[in-house]
Amino acid sequence: MRTTRTVPARPVLIATLTLATAGSLLLGPDTAGADPKPVTREGAAVDDHAAQAPASAARRALAAPEETSTGTATRGYPRRQVLSPDPENPGDKSLKLGLTPYHAIAPKLNALQRLGDRVSVEVTGRSAGGHRLYLVTVTAPETTRQARAQERMRELIENAPAAAAKSPEIKRAYKTPVFVNSNIHGNEWEGTDASLKIVERLATAKDARTRALLARSRLYFNITANPDGRIAGTRANAGGFDLNRDFVTASQPETRAMRQTELDKQPAVLLDLHGYVNGTLIEPTTPPHGENYEYDLFLKNSYANALGMESAVNALGHTPAKDGVEPAQIPFRDQEEGWDDWPPIFTPQYAAFHGTVAAHTVEIPLAVNNEEYDELPVAELRRRSAVNTAVAGAAIRATLDHVREHRTSLIADQIEVFRRGAAGAPQVPVSPETVPGVPGIGPEDVYTTDFPRAYVIPPGGSRTQRSAPAAARLVDHLLANDVRVTRAARPFRLAGRTYPRGSYVVDMHQPKRGMANALLADGRDISGDVSVMYDISGWSLGRLWGATVEQVPSGSLRGAPLHPVTEATPVARVPAHGDLRLRLTDPREIAALNSLLQQGVRVRQAPDGSVIVPASARREAVAAARAHDVSFTATRLTGGTPLHRLRVAAAVTPGELFALREMNFDVTPVSTAVLNSGFDWSGTDVLFVSAGLDHAALTAPARSALDTFLDDHGLVGRGARGAALNAAADRLAVEPVEGNTDANGVVRTENTGRVTHDAPAHAFVYAPLWFTGLGPGVRVEQSYATGNPLVSGHWRPLRDGTGGPAAAAGQASVVSGARTVLFGTEPLFRDHPKGEFPQVARALFTVAHSGSVEESG
What we know:
By secondary structure, the chain is an alpha+beta fold. The protein is 33% helix and 17% strand. It starts with 9 loop residues before the first helix and ends in an 8-residue tail after the last helix. Residues 1-46 and 852-857 have low confidence and may be disordered.
């Protein structure tokens, strides 16, 4: 247990902070308010609003990345460019707070570049809403030759860490990379303004400390990571995504831009500026800690920098009595649990896998968003924003001081992260001896893992393996995350097993082994370790993305015919003769099918769930195969059910809406409000509901129109909201049982129906649901496995013993019948579990094309 000041578990922590907020109201109308629930779980358990994101946001996110001004050639600094101004937008939500609106950023950056030779601006991409993403670099000028030397040293640190550790040039001349990320949540604004103020000061400061800092550092500022949300005053981007939950999946262009910055710049130190927790919250975090990190190095540096930031923030002189600001807090020291760094979906935690040894979420103190934004006087909002900007600025300045004073050890520890990975060295468990100077380290902080020798991903394509598109997608995703992958030129044996030619191998003796393992490993069941988690606790791509991934615990790769790859081998193939068969086991195959249907190709669905394309549409099939990288096979199958292009009405979460569009479905977002306004059902084939549609809240005409539609068409429902609509409309005779709503993770399943045919034997759950009391005609499509179905994640029973994995074991997780399919799992969660997407697609096609699931089986 902690030996320093502690705060009890999450429920008491929330109550304590709520009381602190209530108490501060006694100080008068201008006092500050803390977020009453700083440790709050986000996602399906609380996200019951139907997504309304425009299709254009999905098109931008799914399109190939456009050229950016960063380029690929190494150039010197400064790298100046004149940014064209954006149209003035009086509706920008920043204006009310007295902060910098998005349309003022480009002119401001132009002015900063003109202040001297220290500031450079590059465009790293565009947001889902089409806004430019700006990266500002502040450093002493470099010639092209000097910039190339920096790049060479950066590559040496990652690719030859043992040599880098001995390099006199690196010790003498390598510039410490620092990354300040601001405004990833759009309605947490002030990090942007603090960064602009810091950049302006650095651009002109003449003191020796600043000159020394810039001579030995490169400072990178992502001015606003989420311009869409900044403008709209929303946490999410234009696609409805919380970008600080997207790093494992990288579905959004903003996330991919941040990822690329981390790969290209390799920061040793990172700040991610957020709001609002009073007092200012500065990571490192509470347990559980990510088991794939070199956590001893991470904790050593992050805690030391946190102390400096805490001192700088408190030195601003804010007090509860004077202005409602509580002293800063460091969760590792001051809390027991509830603010963990377990999943790599957050910016600082993701950065740790790319060599960042001091990484922090910093939650500035005074709430100005949500109800505060709407209800507080403008003067009070601006007072709070000014305080928040000062706090964020203090955190940045303290970090820069730390970098200047500890440059040598920061770079040495970054090199050591990569050296351990490349050498296959064991992790070093944290303890008072291995991380001296950090108080309160106990056994509850020790999280390590046994890295396998390798992972093998067979190429797919046979009946006994998962789909070839899934294997290719997974390999490309690993490469995009800077994981090294090789491919076998011929069959080979490893650890007593033979693998086919074309198999992909991830050698776990590589600098970023932590990243590779975080993506591919099962993870672990941490239900017994802590009582509550901040967000998801299991996410395995190896189990959820549809490819076969085999872990090889030990063995030698010496002599294996393996060659490095820079991209997966394309799988597109169309036989030259005969009718064509396309499996529907991957979202790319679903997208290809929908493109064919959109063109009017007469596609039939075979009894096994695959589809048959006539030989007369070979040209269209070739185009679809190339566009979506899928493989058709020749077939002599006849008959089958004719398919047509589906028009889907969807009351779903943002991640689900995006996944449907990723599969190329024609989707119209709906909600209770949309139906009450008089929705025209005539253009709809099927309804998918998981959020934001309440049957009881519908007007009488809207309810009648919905019931009439469901009688003639069909329903696909997910989760508690889908099950509630099913019950209200009196469709499928089942009794839904809600598990612990805090539960999430990867579970084992048994697939027994057509909707789940060829699906992975694993699923993702978040607030899991199952179905009992199955009436006549109800078919079990999928069940939770017997025993303990949880593979990785956090799923505890409720206090009365119900709602846990034991209660779910063997129960139906997906059921069908009477033109209805209900899911108790999360097959489209945040656009992540790619291997489960086809279950939803099959459900939509089955419900829309048949009187019932049974009739089409």
